[in-house]
């Protein structure tokens, strides 16, 4: 028996001895052993939502449909229309308008956008920083931070004069931390080329730290440093990726480039005198100084040659995926070790598809190190594992597969008519023939840990699609949702699965766009 506590004193309950192994500690935390952990309730709620959603009685109902002559975008429960001038919340029982701005002039057209969410556990300078915001890039080189709920302009940065730089693309170097703004490729007009004028700068990249928004630096990609055949450039996870016309991909340490070649750091709003110009950083008309001058070829981290510059890194230990740089190898994927370029055992993946659209492959976004290979009628989830008795060598093994439902599909090359005449077909159906169920989209819902697939069958002019939810660990089918609208395989489609919401965006010819919103409902006798 426990001794009684002294009057007026509160005796704390003895703490259970905690595990000292970090892996065990994290595993216990993931299973919810620590009730005071802020994430425990959230994980439990998501687990309940997943169970409710996968019940047979739960349905997804088409609650809203709209059409537009301009592109429709979706970001975290918000639908953007009219070039981001109209924002509609899809979280409510019926979508409702959050804000509607007047139609903007062509000079204020938004070229690209990124959703910015508040980082956890950080003190921020402004109360507005704790709410979601939208970073947008306009055609006149303005970078704006807008409130995601009201559209109010929170910050405004001028990048550069349109005469010398045309910024068009936004991307993440580190998601929600470091952002990159990129120009289109600089090309001289034909008249200037005929006059012998030389253009050595191919791209400009402006790099920002976000929340609070701060300027890191701007650099140029110069053909004198990187070569004449550069076709594109990107920054991702601290790596500068340079792509060439002959399929070559080269990787450089971006952090090392910043440290080695930055001439002078600048802060937004700072007055500066740069190359004879006096102005304020981020203000019109001066914009941002190009303060990172790469004067010599940076140390090369890695290079590979791949068809159409297709190159991916992932897995554990690190591996990369390429397609041999010849057209005859299209659809053939090599999985190799990043350490020594060694091809993994069973590392050549080839579905041998006979289809109009090629199969595709990528590292699983759940950070498990697995690989997803999608063909017209087959999805393979592959994993890396050590070769038995050879710990330094890895092999590719099949974790599970998902197969399209083609039970009723008969593709006989020889048929017999009613009169007994034998007819031989001169051709076979393609693997992605519209009349056969074909996988079109594969995605991953990280909060519910579900793998979602969209499969389509088109009979005549009417195409039917269904969205299926599979267990991400074993591939077991948990739920199938029929999409009510017709699906034309010749149109462009996007499907978003976001917890209890399914959203389908369709682009038809002549820039006609449609949006279909489905929400989870519990099927009752009254609804029936």
TrEMBL record:
Domain of life: Eukaryota
GO process terms (BP): protein ubiquitination
Identification of the protein by name: DCA17 factor
Alphabetical UniProt keywords: Membrane, Transmembrane, Transmembrane helix
Membrane spanning stretches: 201-221, 233-252
GO cellular component, one term: Cul4-RING E3 ubiquitin ligase complex
């Amino acid at each position: 028996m426990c001794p009684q506590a002294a009057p007026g004193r509160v005796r704390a309950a003895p703490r259970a001895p905690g595990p000292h192994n970090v892996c065990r500690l994290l595993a216990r935390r993931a299973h919810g052993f620590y009730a005071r952990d802020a994430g425990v309730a959230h994980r439990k709620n998501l687990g309940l939502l997943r169970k409710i959603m996968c019940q047979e009685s739960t349905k997804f109902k088409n609650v809203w449909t709209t059409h537009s002559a301009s592109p429709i975008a979706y970001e975290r429960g918000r639908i953007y229309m009219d070039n981001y001038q109209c924002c509609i919340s899809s979280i409510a029982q019926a979508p409702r308008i959050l804000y509607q701005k007047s139609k903007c002039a062509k000079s204020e057209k938004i070229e690209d956008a990124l959703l910015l969410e508040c980082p956890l556990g950080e003190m921020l300078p402004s109360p507005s920083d704790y709410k979601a915001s939208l970073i947008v890039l306009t055609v006149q080189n303005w970078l704006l931070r807008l409130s995601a709920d009201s559209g109010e302009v929170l910050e405004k940065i001028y990048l550069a004069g349109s005469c010398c730089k045309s910024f068009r693309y936004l991307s993440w170097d580190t998601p929600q931390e470091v952002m990159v703004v990129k120009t289109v490729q600089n090309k001289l007009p034909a008249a200037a080329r005929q006059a012998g004028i030389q253009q050595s700068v191919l791209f400009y990249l402006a790099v920002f730290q976000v929340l609070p928004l701060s300027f890191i630096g701007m650099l140029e990609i110069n053909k004198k440093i990187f070569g004449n055949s550069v076709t594109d450039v990107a920054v991702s996870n601290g790596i500068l990726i340079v792509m060439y016309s002959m399929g070559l991909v080269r990787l450089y340490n971006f952090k090392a480039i910043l440290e080695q070649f930055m001439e002078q750091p600048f802060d937004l709003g700072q007055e500066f005198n740069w190359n004879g110009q006096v102005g304020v950083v981020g203000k019109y008309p001066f914009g941002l100084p190009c303060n990172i001058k790469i004067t010599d070829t940076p140390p090369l981290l890695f290079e590979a040659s791949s068809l159409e510059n297709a190159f991916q890194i992932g897995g554990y230990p690190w591996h990369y995926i390429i397609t041999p740089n010849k057209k005859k190898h299209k659809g053939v994927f090599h999985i190799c070790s990043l350490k020594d370029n060694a091809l993994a055992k069973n590392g050549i993946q080839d579905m041998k598809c006979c289809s109009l659209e090629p199969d595709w492959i990528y590292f699983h976004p759940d950070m498990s190190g697995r690989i997803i290979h999608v063909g017209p009628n087959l999805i393979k989830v592959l994993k890396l594992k050590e070769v038995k008795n050879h710990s330094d060598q890895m092999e590719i093994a099949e974790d599970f597969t998902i197969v399209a439902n083609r039970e009723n599909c008969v593709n006989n090359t020889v048929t017999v008519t009613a009169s007994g005449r034998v007819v031989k077909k001169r051709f076979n159906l393609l693997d992605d023939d519209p009349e056969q169920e074909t996988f079109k989209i594969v995605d991953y819902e990280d909060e519910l840990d579900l793998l979602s697939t969209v499969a389509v069958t088109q009979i005549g002019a009417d195409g039917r699609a269904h969205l299926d939810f599979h267990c991400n660990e074993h591939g077991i089918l948990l739920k199938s949702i029929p999409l009510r609208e017709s699906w034309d395989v010749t149109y462009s489609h996007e499907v978003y699965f976001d917890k209890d919401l399914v959203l389908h965006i369709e682009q038809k010819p002549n820039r006609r766009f449609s949006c279909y919103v489905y929400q989870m409902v519990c099927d009752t006798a009254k609804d029936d």
